[in-house]
């Protein structure tokens, strides 16, 4: 009787989801929806054998656990993901999170721990993802100041604004003369709206110029979407863990199209990644992440996706489609803006019909006015862009003429 009730509910859900357009039309979403069948089937097969696969703590350096887990798989995918960033089993602590947001919360949390007992100044930009505001909300009171630095027109942090803002804080906090503050930096690799990447080296240089030494700085990289393809483009600076940055967060579901999950990785500098309070004796794990029991299928889905594609090829394909889409927009006389090495195409706000159909994210940007974006993930083809362009042609009359990036 109860199972019938559940089955009926499922039938209702199926009806609902069948009426929705396929996910590939969500061009405003940075998710990779290409060829998901393998992932779905593999997970289903495994779930039929073991429906509850749970991981806790970090899987690195753990060889076995008494319950059914995927620690070896989690370890495997983590090591593959951190390798291009210089991460290894010996120098990194990491775990699979629920998503980029948890990774950012962990970054701020561990940054505070690493810099303790200093109360650091937090630096982030006004185009940082809202998960950073969330992380700040959760850790409020632990910073001596919170500085939201303005961005340049393209969306990256304006490094020239860092020094005057920090100096201003130091002058106001009547700390003993010569006191050099500690700084927690959250830098973004690929802002949500414009795909802009903060220049981490310039941020560090502006802090060094004030006499702040590297050991008083903790840099967390929010690389939610761009972290997946960053190292596939040799124009990008190859930031290394423990050198340019201390921790990183990458979303598993964005570039890789794995299940809803993410990666948090931190350079092991001090004992902060091991704590007495974090040791759970009866589980013999060191549980210091934000969440405890986690879905072990996430690591499995991520490694399936990781092995399924030649990611260099996927990146090259996406760049080709970006160029194609930009050309198509030009032919409609719609201006576009794309940051270097980004797959996010900004346009002035498009007609409502288009925004609804393609789930485009829109917002009022201080620099460019009302904009929206189209994100080119591996599943996007020239054919899909052609469909969008045909739709656009029909309602282009509604668009106001704008001119930006002249
Ligand atoms: C998407 C995004 C996040 C959050 O990631 P989730 O996986 O959605 O939690 C964080 N930062 C940036 C820049 C993002 O674009």
TrEMBL record:
Key word Protease present: no
Family matches, as InterPro entries: Group_II_Decarboxylase (IPR051151), PyrdxlP-dep_de-COase (IPR002129), PyrdxlP-dep_Trfase (IPR015424), PyrdxlP-dep_Trfase_major (IPR015421)
This protein's record includes keyword Lyase: yes
Domain of life, source organism: Eukaryota
Modified residues (N6-(pyridoxal phosphate)lysine): 254
Alphabetical keyword list: Decarboxylase, Lyase, Pyridoxal phosphate
GO MF, any single term: pyridoxal phosphate binding
One GO term of the biological process aspect: carboxylic acid metabolic process
Gene3D superfamilies registered for this protein in UniProt: Type I PLP-dependent aspartate aminotransferase-like (Major domain) (3.40.640.10)
Cofactor (UniProt): pyridoxal 5'-phosphate
Stored PANTHER family: HISTIDINE DECARBOXYLASE (PTHR46101:SF18), PTHR46101
Similarity comment: family membership: Belongs to the group II decarboxylase family.
Protein name (Swiss-Prot/TrEMBL): Histidine decarboxylase
